[in-house]
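Suppose you are handed a protein chain with no further information: no name, no annotation, nothing but its sequence. What can you learn? This example shows the usual starting point.
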Amino acid sequence: MHPLNMQSTTSLPTALLDHQVDGSSHHDWLLSPVQNPSPEDRCLVTYRMTRALNQLGPGQAEPLQRLPDHRGLYLDLSGPRQLDPVDGRDRGTVTPIDRGSAMTCSRGDGTTDIRIRWDRAGTEQIARIHHGDGGEDLLEILEQVKDADPESQGVG
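A reasonable first move is to predict its three-dimensional structure. Written in structure tokens, the prediction is:
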């Protein structure tokens, strides 16, 4: 079963990070399957994306590359974090872009609908994830609403 093929009835934490490594960058989108994950628990469903999710609008789509689950500590970063090297390989720096909450609902047809509320951007997105084979999924933005008076719960 795909890790997002669950139906959450509560809002669960999500975060978006900018990941700089070897002179290039991508974004890591993290989704927690539980309300308060332990900082060291490797439970965060993680996707690599080229464009920042909170900047995508209705009708736009973005490939998602599934990565190994990340630790809970990445949900609460307040600033840039230099990643520890692995086997002498530089893993770069991650910087929080935004965080918020997400609710998922499996549609049973190989897709998952997700409602994301971004704190800093002050937007709510309705998206659909089309689950592919081999760890490559596609995210499609169905709707986006900009709050008239967003709460100031920004990152950093």
